[in-house]
Backbone:
């Protein structure tokens, strides 16, 4: 009897432990687009966008998908998307033409609301609320491009005070998550020749910059590719690496707590292009073409849990659902 109880206890411990490891429920959506734009609304509603002018949406948790082309633009890569609800969304392109479109009828029709010149390249989109949002673009003339909307994406203008860029410094549009925005200000992280963290305070309308010396950098393929915040701790988690060396796991993740930057000896299991915080579990999840990792201790250490490749990962408002998007029309929802 004692042996039976011991075995039963061991089985229960293993079961509980296993239940604490996340997994992806993957969806093969219509088409084969590379999906780097991602905007979940809930565990049921999620939008995605990407190559070939593609937009996608599910309203039943991934059971079925609606798909189309933004205004018939089948040559444009819409790597950034922000959805307000099941009917309204804004998309921004990466590359040329540098355009922003908006839909109010669930994707049936899209109207162009902004276009930049031939040098522009949009990297990320973030909204603070239903009216105020920002788009980050590559530097032009030594200044970062930052566009602002105050009417829900219907019109856009340049931020008055733009930060300086170092020669060879770049932002990455791999997952539209190199920039964050909240009621206090903006923050974005970079790579290329140098990896830096740029912070903008709305109150003072001023920028502060710090070097991220512990992040891999120096080459056009290296640096920070994605950022997420830790609301309870007031910190930032930055992931990236080198997309030309996807197996490298050294200097590919940082935890920023105030003025302190923490780098673990081994970060996620390779180059990671997306990262998100699942508030409901307290997990940080990082994704890349080589697989996914999660941290249950605030990004101090990482554990791999999937070899399925994804480009982007985002949490729904409220932090109860986590979605991912990748190549070949693949999307996923975290199971936990």
Residues:
């Amino acid at each position: 009897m004692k042996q039976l109880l011991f075995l039963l206890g061991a089985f229960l411990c293993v079961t509980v432990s296993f239940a604490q490891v996340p997994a992806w429920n993957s969806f093969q959506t219509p088409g084969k687009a590379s999906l780097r734009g991602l905007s979940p609304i809930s565990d049921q509603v999620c939008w995605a966008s990407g190559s070939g002018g593609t937009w996608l949406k599910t309203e039943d948790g991934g059971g079925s998908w609606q798909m189309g082309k933004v205004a018939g633009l089948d040559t444009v890569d819409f790597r950034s998307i922000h959805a307000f609800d099941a009917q309204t969304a804004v998309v921004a392109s990466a590359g040329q033409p540098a355009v922003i479109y908006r839909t109010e009828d669930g994707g049936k029709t899209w109207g162009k609301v902004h276009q930049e010149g031939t040098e522009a390249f949009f990297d990320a989109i973030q909204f603070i609320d239903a009216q105020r949002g920002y788009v980050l673009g590559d530097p032009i003339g030594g200044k970062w491009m930052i566009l602002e909307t105050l009417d829900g994406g219907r019109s856009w203008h340049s931020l008055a005070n733009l930060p300086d860029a170092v020669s060879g410094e770049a932002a990455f549009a791999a997952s539209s998550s190199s920039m964050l925005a909240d009621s206090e200000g903006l923050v974005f992280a970079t790579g290329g020749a140098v990896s830096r963290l740029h912070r903008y305070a709305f109150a003072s309308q001023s920028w502060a910059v710090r070097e991220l010396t512990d992040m891999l950098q120096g080459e056009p393929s290296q640096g920070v590719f994605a950022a997420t915040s830790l609301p309870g701790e007031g910190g930032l988690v930055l992931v990236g690496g080198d997309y030309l060396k996807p197996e490298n796991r050294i200097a590919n993740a940082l935890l920023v707590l105030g003025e302190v930057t923490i780098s673990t000896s081994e970060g996620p299991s390779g180059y990671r292009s997306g990262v998100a915080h699942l508030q409901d579990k307290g997990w940080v999840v990082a994704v890349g073409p080589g697989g996914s990792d999660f941290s249950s201790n605030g990004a101090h250490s990482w554990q791999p849990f999937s070899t399925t490749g994804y480009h982007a990962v985002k949490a729904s408002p409220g932090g109860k659902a986590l979605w991912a998007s990748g190549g070949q029309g693949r999307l996923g929802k975290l199971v936990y």
